Amino acid sequence: MSDFEAKKDLVTLRINGITVQASSGETVLTVARRTGIDIPALCHHPKISSSGACRVCLVEINGVPMTSCTTHAEDKMEVITNSPYIEHLRRDMIDLILSDHPNDCMVCQKTGECELQELAYKYGIRNPIFSGERRIYSKKDGNPFIDRDMEKCILCGRCIKICDEVQGVGAIDFAYKGFDTKVCPPFEKDLNCEFCGQCVMVCPTGALTGKAWIGKGRYWKIQEVDTTCPYCGIGCNITLHISDNRIVRVTSPEDSVVNKGLLCVKGRFGYEFVSSPDRLKTPLIRKDNELHPASWEEALSYAAKRFLEIKETHGPDAIAGLSSARCTTEDNYLFQKFIRVAIGTNNVDHCARL
Amino acid sequence: MASLATIFGSGAMTNSIREIEDNEVIFIIGSNTKESHPVIANMMLKARAKGAKIIVADPRKISMCKFSYLWLRQKPGTDRALLNCMAHVILEEGLYDQAFIDEFTTDFDEWNKSLEEFTPEAGEKLTGVPKEDIIKAAITYASSRKAAIYYTMGITQHTHGTANVNAIANIALLTGNIGRRSTGINPLRGQNNVQGACDAGCLPNVFPGYQRIRIPKIHKKFENAWAAALSPNPGLTAPEITEKAAEGIIKAVYVMGENPVLGDPNMGHTIKGFKNLDFLLVQDIFLTETARLADVVLPAVCFAEKDGTFTNTERRVQRVRKALLPPGEAKEDSWIIAELSRRMGYEMNYSSSEEIFDELGSLWPALEGITYAKIQQRGIQWPCPTKNHPGTEYLYKSGFPRGKAAFTPVPFDRDTVKEDKEYPFVLSTGRNLFHYHYGSMTRRVKAIESHAGKAYLEMHPDDAAKLKITSDASVKISSRNGSVIVPVRVTERVRQGEVFMPMHYAEAAVNILTDEKALDYSKTPGYKITQVRVEALIGEEK
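Predict the joint structure of the above. Result:
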């Protein structure tokens, strides 16, 4: 594209009096956020297409309230994001959402990470002014991974879109109409789900959480450690959430370099093995054809002695080492160095072929 | 990987994961991407949403077929014929890149001659894929300058795996679809650190960084670096080690974090080999099937209990960090190795994993520019030769390290699957979405186990009807090496005459059935084709 053409695609608009440039395909919400002006939104999410469902991102455009997540920036647009009129409308939208939302933040797992709670706090909504019928759902929990509390669902549609657009599964959708609308699998029956948990990642409220981490601690009391997923070769960037020397939850930073926050069922929910009671806790030595606990000194000395004896009698090429594609590069480097130098053979391989 | 290295000079994914979304054509052959590499599948779907065409070549109706522009259902073991036929079409249609061929390749004429017999008509007969689809796939792939090939074990785990990889490389060279952004050859690595283990030199013919033992200059370099006399002879591969153990030539084996009893082909043969050893040392986080046979078992820590790096499928070196205290007396692998080494008279003194990493970097230029400090936030892709180098997003931007890459004729001997009345079914093995490898990790996750904890055999409805069985009925599946009993899942994912069994379940271990005869150059076993018999169970056994 030539400079001339690129310029043709640029539009100039004003947001809260600030003149900004945008490319013509960008939405007002994106441009504003890029400029450092925060516009709240509950249904908009950068990983999915916009629907304008929650109405929280309303702004005044040339004097008319419009959803900023679905309106494209245009030349000479005059955008106001924080007028008393807009703030009032926005407060009402949040108030309406809260009118049909359980007021149980004190026991909700999402507390502190909940986007709705954050807005209620910002707008100081303690008791919703709107009252009326509430949706009451009994919990239907057929799966071992994701906890669904549909009373906390604000029908933003993020979970539906990420499942369809990003995961390509389409396990869930809106069903029924009006007040009865809810998110569920087809006919509220067979959940054809990959349990990647992308829906849990984008849910703005406590409607979707991981079963494993409910009740395991508030997020601000949990230590976070950035590391790399131990499963397939993609090497997704993950954050381990640690409490009481246990992994209680795993997330991935949304802007992570490899996987952009996306994970699979193993990467998100597959860590119980770390604290399994089956973990080996002490060295074992075979005596009388059975493995018996031993000290490190005993085990290491015995192993070294046996290797030396066999090397002496049969030569180093009678010994071989098999290392692991699951251990670190450093472990593997040291392992082959041990086999090549301390043993003296090149009989070293791992399971890349297998 | 061995074969890719032979052709291009290094064996790794040529492109990056983030380049996937800009692919125009995604050609997946022998990779069940949606289940084995789910997040890569996410990136492919993103490309598709932007208009990319996905071509899937797989005997099974894998989940990715749902998103495919074209699905080629080749008969098992005919991948190389399919690829040869595609090359034939590309040549016929004049869609090759003559300038690229002239500048970067050799042996074109000889290879071109070898393709004569691979007409689309012949292809249809050999592979079972309609000739129109072969033509369409070839034209689609060759018409784009942003076409990339993705493969995994469906290509390599064959007795002719090297030939398959050669056939893939041939079509990339023919079209010049390599060496640029979003186009290349991408083997997706199956385990978190296969790349790192290979890079670190856990291979019998090369020192760290794929530096050949046979080259005297390199041998000398490592003798100097490690201040020790080193064997000049390449060692044995994993399948050969088991073989030689059974023959009594290998007397002792040290296994770190592997479970060859479940993982190697032909379990009976593997157990025989390992039982025949004078001494077996196993270092692991669980008492695996292999550890049960050991003379000494050493408890190691897992990924969350140590510092270090993993290198992912796109050559990105990334940090692993200690987050937990290990259980009981479990120790870091590096500590164990150093302690053992000291007792054998060779001191290894390292105060941190970083020091070990730096030593590796000092011996392999591709890693030399990477330090822990530089990968604190985000990993870097090798080659990264200098301290200010940003890493390498895609390989071969300025040609191949070996100079020119050669076209390799890939003959098709037509007898991978033999007519066999006694063992009429073709069994292939692989992963499902929920479990990982041989299950030592995921089978200890209750949520996963309760959802996907049962072994199964996928079988076509017509075959099931012939055996008068329905889903969940148990069958006895036998090969020449052994038999297992497993419930059936009746599904059209597999074709008539073909069955599939996931590899994760010890109670129905596929490797009781598979065969250890590794005839291939790379010594990779043929997990994807085992000829078996399936019998319905009656009475007691049920």
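The CA atoms of residues 104 and 111 of chain A lie 9 Å apart.
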